[in-house]
């Protein structure tokens, strides 16, 4: 396994007419994965103090990590972790992981036709590769990041929608890969209540030491589909909260939808999972 030299630089913006210095946000590179059989791109953000200190830092792994989500999330994190907003959370490294095949890698079971009460919600060519993608994270990407940067033992996984489904499945089946989980409006409707069925399966004792923050949106405008996704999701979240003896929590954002809830989830979730110890 080899961490390749950064191939691109990611710039937040540059204003040559007004200043001579560009504002650097992070770097984009890739890792040749034997597990996935493909090159996997990712982007890395280092906190402002990284170059002037010898500190070690938590690492946040951001799923669905396209350039827009990367820039948006890093903006929230840096604001909260610096004097801009009174250092409410810890400075952290961010590793954003773009998708190469979203439905393949983020779903835990194989479905060609995704149905709810006989209605076909979507049709896929590839699903059910979550276990292998998780193996890539655990055995290739995380070791590469730990080798290249000054990282602490604290690792946070952030996933939304299908990414939230993946994060929840990771919590159930490999909880020690990450110490903390920020799960945003997960696709709980997947495979006829997969998460609750997996949680209640008799062949495992679920006793995680992880702290989890769940954020749920108001999707009542989607009718029974939205209401059921919320019901199954909060049922799963309540089971996790009970199992983690109250160190985890869930929050409902009545004025946000599935597509808008992420910003508030990041803001509130980071304060719960990465509070700054002043």
From TrEMBL:
Alphabetical list of Gene3D superfamilies matching this protein: alpha/beta hydrolase
Leader peptide range in chain numbering: 1-19
Keyword Hydrolase: yes
Gene Ontology MF annotations: hydrolase activity
Keywords, in A-Z order: Hydrolase, Signal
Domain of life of the organism encoding this protein: Bacteria
The protein's name: Alpha/beta hydrolase
Originating organism: Alteromonas portus
């Amino acid at each position: 396994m080899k961490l390749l030299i950064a191939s691109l630089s990611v710039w937040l913006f540059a204003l040559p007419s007004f200043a001579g210095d560009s504002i650097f946000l992070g770097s984009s590179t890739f890792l040749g994965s034997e597990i996935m059989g493909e090159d996997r791109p990712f982007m890395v953000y280092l906190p402002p103090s990284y170059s002037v200190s010898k500190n070690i830092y938590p690492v946040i792994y951001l799923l669905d990590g396209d350039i827009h989500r990367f820039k948006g999330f890093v903006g929230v994190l840096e604001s909260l972790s610096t004097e801009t907003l009174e250092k409410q959370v810890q400075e952290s490294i961010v590793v954003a992981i773009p998708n190469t095949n979203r439905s393949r890698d983020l779903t835990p079971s194989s479905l060609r036709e995704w149905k709810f009460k006989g209605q076909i919600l979507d049709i896929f060519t590839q699903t059910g590769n979550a276990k292998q993608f998780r193996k890539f994270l655990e055995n290739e990407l995380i070791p590469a990041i730990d080798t290249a940067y000054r990282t602490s033992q604290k690792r946070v996984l952030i996933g939304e929608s299908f990414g939230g489904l993946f994060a929840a499945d990771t919590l159930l089946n490999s909880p020690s890969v990450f110490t903390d989980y920020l799960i945003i409006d997960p696709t709980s409707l997947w495979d006829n209540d997969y998460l609750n069925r997996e949680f209640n399966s008799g062949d495992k004792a679920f006793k995680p030491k992880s702290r989890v923050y769940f954020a749920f949106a108001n999707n009542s405008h989607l009718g029974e589909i939205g209401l059921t996704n919320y019901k199954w999701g909060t049922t799963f979240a309540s089971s996790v909260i009970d199992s983690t003896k109250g160190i985890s929590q869930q929050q409902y954002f009545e004025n946000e939808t599935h597509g808008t809830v992420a910003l508030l989830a990041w803001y509130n979730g980071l304060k719960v999972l990465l509070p700054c110890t002043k």
